[in-house]
Write a structure and sequence with these properties.
This protein is mostly helical and 107 residues long. The chain is built from one helix and no strands. The longest helix has 53 residues.
């Protein structure tokens, strides 16, 4: 009654990838030589370099400015919403306090 029931799956339902083949590698020990080792000349990096045109720089600056303005507007609007909510709660508290105090004076 308290033993968990483990579901059985007779056949796999998803894609099965075969295990990766492991290739053996050989270790080769080099004998020290007396010839001097000359460093290879500096070659170009394998990574492509990014070249910015003036139009691309203007576009990046404009996009960054737009993002800053949008995020700033959202944050200011959220701050304004909190301020309006706080003011309305304060007004409601004053009205309720006034109502309670006038009821207390009548009795």
């Amino acid at each position: 009654m308290f033993r968990p029931k483990i579901p059985t799956m007779p056949q796999p339902t998803g894609l099965i990838t075969p295990p990766a083949a492991i290739e053996a590698t050989a270790v080769i020990q080099h004998q020290p030589t007396t010839t001097p080792v000359v460093p290879a000349p500096a070659t170009a990096s394998a990574r492509p370099t990014v070249q910015l045109t003036p139009g691309a720089v203007v576009a990046l600056v404009g996009g960054g400015t737009a993002v800053v303005l949008v995020v700033g507007a959202v944050l200011v609007s959220m701050l304004l919403a909190v301020a309006v909510t706080g003011a309305s709660v304060a007004v409601c508290a004053l009205v309720i306090r006034s109502l309670i105090s006038t009821e207390a004076k009548r009795h």
